[in-house]
Design goal:
- With about 325 residues, the protein is an alpha/beta fold.
- The protein folds into two domains: about 5-140 and about 255-300, Rossmann fold; about 140-255, Phosphofructokinase domain (Rossmann fold).
- Helices cover about 45% and strands about 20% of the residues.
- The strands form two sheets. Strands 3-2-1-4-5-10-11 form a seven-stranded mixed sheet, with helices on both faces. The chain has a four-stranded parallel sheet with strand order 7-8-6-9, sandwiched between helices.
- Strand 10 and strand 11 form a beta hairpin.
- Helix 1 runs parallel beside helix 9, helix 2 (about 40-45) crosses helix 3 and helix 5 crosses helix 6.
- The longest helix is centred in the middle third of the chain and has 22 residues, at about 140-160.
- The protein is elongated.
- Its main location: cytoplasm.
Length: about 325
């Protein structure tokens, strides 16, 4: 292995930079040249590819976003698009590619692997929804951003004795909502994996008021539905003064937490180790605090599931 490429793709996540840095430095340490592919698969098709040096990834470990930029690229979903990408990689004599991104990006890496071009997937997404890993890069940072918001909202909720609905990211996975709800002491957590009955939510709110609670915090993952609509319904049914906060893209930004930086460094380096050992078509992850790798095709055939025990605990603690 003489030359590898690295790209970031799909939704950006804090810690992607730390992963890029780890890939670049680990590779250079082992005398492998590294090329950065800019703007994900879009840049790959267009040949937006530049050599990265040790210094190219200096001063980025603490920055959110991605220095390689990210993009969504419909053309790459086609066979022609994928072959164009491989042509560019061959032109630069790049022998393998590290793809840092979410499940969509993994699909692209899987396709390249199926065409005979070795790729390693590194899980970079705030959603924590990639099979084969307990944590994805960016999840911890997003979670801490949400907690910070919940704590602040709680102050005003207490002062004004209001009910607050906080909509967080998570179209298909409720991890951010569940972890943030548990850590933020929310009364109700609504996740796509376990749609709660509205009646139960209302009953829970009323029970709380009856035992003297002055305010309530409800966390809704965006995949469940609109927080605004949900807030309206609650106010109509309970007559409690209700406010809604949609946290939106602030959840994607910010300086990565120490956890995400360490995770990104470990996973990025592991990806390079796999390539050095001659493995392609794998994805890396961490399970029970041990670095693991799986066949990328097999991993993608699995679905990420929510921790049911944790979900039940959140209900028990918010009676
Ligand atoms: P994420 O990686 O965060 O899940 P997306 O789902 O938007 O983000 O995927 C990022 C990019 O990966 C897409 O814009 C596309 O270029 C590529 N991609 C997604 N699905 C496929 C697929 N089935 N085949 C090939 N490439 C894909």
């Amino acid at each position: 292995m003489k030359r590898i490429g690295v790209l970031t793709s799909g939704g950006d996540a804090p810690g992607m930079n730390a992963a890029v840095r780890a890939v670049v430095r680990k590779a250079i340490y082992h005398n492998i040249e590294v090329f950065g592919v800019y703007r994900g698969y879009a840049g790959l098709i267009e040949g937006d590819i530049k050599k990265l040096e040790i210094g190219s990834v200096g001063d980025i470990i603490h920055r959110g976003g991605t220095m390689l930029y990210s993009a969504r690229c419909e053309e790459f979903k086609t066979r022609e698009g994928q072959l164009k990408g491989i042509e560019q990689l061959n032109k630069h004599e790049i022998e393998a590619l590290v793809v840092i991104g979410g499940d969509g990006s993994y699909q692209g890496a899987k396709k390249l692997t199926e065409h005979g071009f070795p790729c390693i997937g590194v899980p970079g997404t705030i959603d924590n929804d990639i099979p084969g890993t307990d944590f994805t890069i960016g999840f911890d940072t997003a979670l801490n951003t949400v907690i910070d918001a919940i704590d602040k909202i709680r102050d005003t909720a207490t002062s004004h004795e209001r009910t607050y609905v906080i909509e967080v990211m998570g179209r298909h996975a409720g991890d951010i909502a569940l972890w943030a709800g548990l850590a933020g002491g929310a009364e109700t957590i609504l996740i796509p994996e376990a749609k709660d009955d509205m009646k139960e939510v209302l009953a829970r709110l009323k029970r709380g008021t009856e035992r003297g609670k002055k305010h309530s915090i409800i966390i809704v993952a965006e995949g469940v539905g609109s927080g605004v609509e949900f807030g309206k319904k609650i106010e109509e049914e309970t007559k409690f003064e209700t406010r809604v906060s949609v946290l939106g893209h602030i959840q994607r930004g910010g300086s990565p937490t120490a956890f995400d930086r360490v995770l990104a460094s470990r996973l990025g380096a592991r990806a390079v180790e796999l390539l050095i050992d001659g493995h392609g078509g794998r994805c890396v992850g961490i399970q029970q605090n041990i670095l693991v790798d799986h066949d990328i095709i097999e991993a993608l055939s699995q679905t990420h599931t929510i921790d049911k025990k944790m979900y039940n605990l959140s209900k028990e603690l918010s009676i």
